[in-house]
Write a structure and sequence with these properties.
Helices cover 17% and strands 32% of the residues. By secondary structure, the protein is an alpha+beta fold. Residues 3-81 form the RRM domain.
Length: 116
């Protein structure tokens, strides 16, 4: 089973292929992806690497966490699963909601309605 690793505080010069090659020294890499801004295409400074096994992933984490890359100390640890839920507001199965805050909206806060 593969293990996903989070790599943070990456220099903007790091690419998918350079991330892949750095982790390949420790064992099989299934995938390596540097996250980019969807509008500009510029790196967001973090990425994910999927390793072939948990043992190989742990060896890479121990070796690379805290390492300096182009003057930046990178953070390497096991990736947490994405949390369920979404942002504030938007359309969902219950309908459109502007906010989940009870203190915003009509009828609260005096003459002007809710506090913004």
């Amino acid at each position: 089973m593969s293990t996903k690793i989070y790599v943070g505080n990456l220099p903007y010069s790091v690419t998918d292929s350079s991330l892949h090659s750095n982790f390949a020294e420790f064992g099989g890499v299934s995938s390596a992806k540097v996250m980019t801004d969807r509008e500009t295409g510029r790196s967001k400074g973090f990425g994910f690497v999927e390793m072939a096994s948990a043992e190989v992933a742990q060896a890479a984490i121990e070796a690379l966490h805290g390492m300096s890359v182009d003057g930046r100390t990178i953070v390497v640890n096991l990736a947490r699963p994405r949390e369920a839920g979404g942002g504030a507001g938007g359309y969902n199965a219950g309908g459109f909601t502007a906010s989940k805050r009870a203190d915003v909206g009509y009828g609260n806060g005096g003459y002007g309605g809710g506090r913004y």
